[in-house]
């Protein structure tokens, strides 16, 4: 099984939100919903959407990185024109929203959200800051590994997949119930990016490659 189960007791919040009964499939197809749903256009995206380091008056603090890869279907074909969104903590491990009360500094020059459309080869590319680990209260001395949240849209909000990308060699993997909720190690490794020297730009930013394969990359429930 590639995807984590809805109920993972080690990840405490799933106990409260996991469905207690089998899903009842609706009789109506999704077409009627999707026809009334938003559709994204190229004109709504700009350079500042994909470069999270230039969205404010000053530069954010932390290690600048480039994250790129391809969105592929199950047959390995590129998914063109897909909207890819990212959100993440800052270099100190804090999100820029009121619900995050972790006593780490906020960065006034880093919001931590971006988006882009995949190109003709299914490729996305973001410039950002490497996020920090942060405590999350799930269990004793609980810390989340550094990660970036990804979502991939189809043509409407009803066609959305959400996942997370991690960084290689993180010592927190073994202690993280979210990462460990994926039963097979080979499937967990599909969420770990790889350092890439060809993506790295001299004296400017380290580069990481990570592909999203629909139907194979583990997705969140």
From TrEMBL:
One annotated GO biological process: 3,4-dihydroxybenzoate catabolic process
GO molecular function, one term: protocatechuate 3,4-dioxygenase activity
Keywords carried by this UniProt record: Dioxygenase, Oxidoreductase
UniProt source species: Actinomadura darangshiensis
One Pfam family, short name: Dioxygenase_C
Annotated EC: 1.13.11.3
Cited InterPro entries: Intradiol_dOase_C (IPR000627), Intradiol_dOase_core (IPR015889), Intradiol_RC_Dioxygenase (IPR050770), PCDO_beta_N (IPR024756), Protocat_dOase_b (IPR012785)
EC class (word): oxidoreductase
All copies of domain Intradiol ring-cleavage dioxygenases, residue ranges: 67-95
Superkingdom classification of source: Bacteria
Protein name: Protocatechuate 3,4-dioxygenase subunit beta
Similarity-based family: Belongs to the intradiol ring-cleavage dioxygenase family.
